[in-house]
Amino acid sequence: MPTPPPTGPLVTRDALAGQLHLLGVRTGETLLAHTSLSSLGWVNGGAVAVVQALLDALGPDGTLVVPTQTGDLSDPAVWRNPPVPEEWWGTIRATMPPYDPRTTPSRGVGVIPETVRTWPGALRSAHPQTSFAAVGPRAAEILEGHAPDCRLGERSPLARLEKLHARVLMLGTGYATCTSFHLAEYRIPSPRVRVGRPAPGGGWEEVTEVSITSDRFDELGYDFERDRSVVVRGEVGGADARLFPVADAVAYAERWLAVHRPREEEI
User: Fold this and answer.
1) Fewer CB within a 10 Å sphere, N or C end of the chain?
2) 3-state helix, strand, coil in the chain (%, to 5)
3) Cα(247)–Cα(32) distance, integer angstroms
4) 3-state secondary structure of 43
5) Is the model's pTM score more than 0.85?
6) How many Å is the Cα radius of gyration of the chain?
């Protein structure tokens, strides 16, 4: 049976860059991008063309930041999709390769962040589970000092992005992917958890961390968009796109989560 032709729309690098400018992306700004390649249509050049278009829109003075998370570097006891047999847990912990920002691939964030991670000149933060990668003149300033016991809090790139007046660009993704909301979890009472992962020098380690979850982030995003005029909406390729300041998203989430999703602070 023949493969059906693509449904489109046909999207090119130049068209994407032009649509990003029409949406409001500014030359020289810092942008935290959450992306879905499949939502854009049939992109001539795939993820590479999308990254090129983003860099074209930002210009040489702009900085592109993406999440390059590695949730698989975690305790097999908490794996659910899929789980592994309990009798494997000890061996997995003893032999799991440690995080290497140069070679460890991202997981669960899509092909565009992975393309940015391997882009010439790209830098990546040091956290072994919730790293970010960036290309541009402010990359080092944003990524350096990502503390190993602070996934998405005050000593993470998110807090740097907030201070630098960066904006979030969402291309075909929903608010469940909005990492900026997690920074708010560090500013309100939140439970703590023990997080297991491979140690940098080999072996296994556990650290105490704020418990983070994207539960109800879609509802939070809906209310944020309804209540705040800072969210710019448009279309890029075939995808719904949103553009808004990191700082506004964090401030709104801090108030919303405390009221609508309170969680007890405990260790």
Assistant:
1) N
2) 35, 20, 45
3) 12
4) strand
5) yes
6) 19
Please give the Cα distance from 64 to 204 (Å, whole number): 33
- Per the CB < 8 A criterion, the answer to whether 59 and 28 are in contact is yes
Pull the structure tokens for residue 172: 């075909």
Backbone angles phi, psi at 82, to 5 degrees: -95, 165
pLDDT in tens, 145-191: 999 999 999 999 999 999 999 999 999 999 999 999 999 999 999 99
Other residues' Cβ atoms within 10 Å of the Cβ of residue 84? 11
Which phi-psi region, left, alpha or beta, contains residue 8 (left: φ > 0; alpha: ψ -120 to 50)?
A: left
What is the C-alpha separation between 123 and 226, in angstroms, rounded?
A: 35
Give the other-Cβ count within 10 Å of 221's Cβ. Answer: 24
Q: Taking the mean position of all CA atoms in its chain, how far away is CA 259? A: 25
Structure confidence by residue, pLDDT tens digits, 32-59: 999 999 999 999 999 999 999 999 999 9
State how far the Cα of 198 lies from the Cα of 102, in Å rounded to an integer. Answer: 16
Q: What pLDDT, in 10s, does the model give residues 195-243?
A: 999 999 889 999 999 999 999 999 999 999 999 999 999 999 999 999 9
State the helix-helix crossing angle for 217-227 and 246-260, rounded to 10 degrees.
Answer: 120
Banded model confidence at residue 8, pLDDT cuts 50, 70, 90: confident
Output the six-digit token pair for 157. Answer: 């790139």
End-to-end CA gap in the chain: 57
pLDDT of residue 266: 47
Number of helices (H) and strands (E), helices first, in the chain? Answer: 9, 11
Amino acid making up residue 143: L
**Pairwise CA distance, residues 120 & 36, whole Å:** 22
